[in-house]
Design goal:
The complex is a heterodimer of chains A (157) and B (266).
Chain A lengths: L1 E7 L2 E7 L5 H8 L18 E4 L2 E4 L12 E3 L13 H8 L9 H15 L5 H7 L10 H16 L1
Parallel strand pairs in A: 1-5
Antiparallel strand pairs in A: 1-2, 3-4, 3-5
Helix pairs in contact in A: 2-5
Chain B lengths: L4 E3 L4 H10 L4 E3 L5 H6 L7 E4 L9 E4 L2 E5 L4 H5 L2 H6 L1 H4 L8 H6 L2 H7 L6 H8 L2 E4 L3 E3 H4 L14 E7 L3 E8 L6 E10 L2 E7 L7 E2 L1 H7 L26 H20 L1
Parallel strand pairs in B: 1-3, 2-3
Antiparallel strand pairs in B: 4-5, 5-8, 6-7, 6-8, 9-10, 10-11, 11-12
Classes of the chains: A alpha+beta (157), B alpha+beta (266).
Chain lengths: 157, 266
């Protein structure tokens, strides 16, 4: 066992893990932050996307020990402490950017990374192209794309 | 995943020492090829030596008439490098076509080259530009480096530190992307630097990345798609799988080479 320490959603956390423990396992099983999902477990579907030092990464293809000293943000870290949703979360609710909801945390974390890289004025083509690493098995992409476009604009306000 | 010991050196020297002490160990760069293979239990390294804290292994720099890229530079950072986009947009476009955004945020040039996946993009760029792979021990020409599927000239304990690409006046990459994996079903990198003309193909060959001497010879006269009009390469030695037959892959090599030439001349 090894000890790993990192900051998750602004809070310092420490845990004992095997070297082979994936970040997504550490988040879900040690920290009980189950908003980050495991979909395909083969780095394709994007249900496990988190932000590692501000940049979107797939937590199923990252070892917990690779995140020693890093700052992680998960879907649980987006809303205000009083429960007020992040503008991107609010946009997903407003535009019904989900069906079963399984891919939603990863979609939202990836959406924020699209905004980071491309700014707040996103066109449909950019959003669809940049969602390459996120799969919605309900195939509900249409509203997801609308939600991201609106969420990106709302974030600029 | 089988278990392993985990190490995080801060210098290349320390990393080399750890590899020497762990002969069944492996280097960990971005982890987006190695970790999936370990999860499938197709690899069982006794130790992982994580290079992410090693100093001096990231960045894109202009050095004389070459662009030098640190081995641990992530695909996303190479793709957005202003220096590279200015001097050789054809090379800057390569990492932008790898995988998906999250993979590009983690995957590195050194990891891609060391892995030498037969469908990876960077090996085509290295061979197609005549790059030099610089390790902790020596400098290796791309022509000598790639030695077949998942096989390179790297010796035990050897660590890629950076890759130096000579700046070619004309250079472009054209790729037929597998729609699900994003890997190159076939990818062709072409370049012209003075009289050095290169056509390098990834994805197609069963022995990994290769050059096409017949095309290169025909392009010596004029570096245009017209020069290779009607030319084909034999289907022998091409990959065959559920995605494409050897004949189809050989056909794509011609088509994509012409498209890459048009792009390089645009």
């Amino acid at each position: 066992m090894a000890t790993v320490s990192m900051t998750v959603n602004g809070k310092a956390v420490t845990g004992d893990v095997e070297p082979r423990t994936l970040l997504v396992q550490f988040l879900r099983e040690n920290l009980r932050l189950t908003g980050t999902h495991v979909g395909c477990d083969t780095s394709q579907c994007g249900a496990c996307v988190i932000h590692l030092d501000g940049i979107a990464a797939k937590a199923c293809t990252t070892l917990a020990l690779q995140c020693e000293g890093a700052s992680i943000t998960t879907i649980e870290g987006l809303a205000e402490p009083d429960g007020k949703l992040h503008p991107m979360q609010e946009a997903f609710r407003e535009h019904h950017g989900l069906q079963c909801g399984y891919c939603t945390p990863g979609m939202i974390m990836s959406a924020l990374d699209i905004v980071r890289r491309n700014g707040n004025n996103l066109d449909e083509h950019t959003i669809r192209d940049q969602l390459d690493g996120n799969i919605c098995r309900c195939t509900g992409y249409h509203n997801i794309v609308k939600a991201i476009e609106a969420g990106a604009k709302a974030m600029a306000k | 995943m089988y278990n392993f010991t985990f190490h995080r050196p801060t210098t290349v020297r320390q990393a080399a020492g750890l590899l020497a002490r762990n002969p069944d160990g492996k280097l960990l760069a971005g982890g987006h090829s190695l970790l999936p293979v370990m999860k499938q239990r197709l690899a069982q390294p006794s130790a992982l030596v994580d290079l992410s804290l090693v100093e001096g292994m990231t960045g894109v720099e202009l050095k004389g008439r070459s662009v030098v890229i640190g081995a641990m530079t992530r695909h996303a950072d190479v793709a957005k490098s202003d220096v590279l986009k200015e001097v050789m947009p054809g090379l800057a476009a390569v990492p932008g076509s790898v995988g998906d955004p999250q993979v590009r945020n983690r995957g590195t040039i050194g990891g891609s080259i060391a892995n030498n996946d037969p469908n990876a993009d960077y090996p085509a760029a290295c061979l197609g530009l005549g790059a030099t792979i610089i390790t902790n021990k020596r400098r290796i020409a791309a022509d000598d480096f790639f030695q077949g599927m998942y096989t390179t000239a790297l010796e035990d304990g050897e660590i890629i530190v950076k890759v130096s690409f000579p700046i070619a006046k004309k250079a472009a990459y054209e790729k037929f992307k597998h729609p699900a994996s994003g890997f190159a079903l076939v990818g062709v990198f072409v370049s012209k630097r003075g009289s050095d003309i290169r056509v390098a193909v990834t994805g197609a060959g069963s022995e990994g990345v290769f050059r096409v001497p017949t095309f290169e010879e025909a392009l010596k006269k004029r570096f245009t798609a017209k020069s290779i009009e009607g030319m084909t390469i034999p289907a022998t030695g091409m990959n065959s799988d559920i995605h494409a037959s050897p004949e189809y892959r050989a056909h794509l090599v011609s088509v994509l080479t012409k498209r890459a030439l048009n792009k390089a001349n645009a």
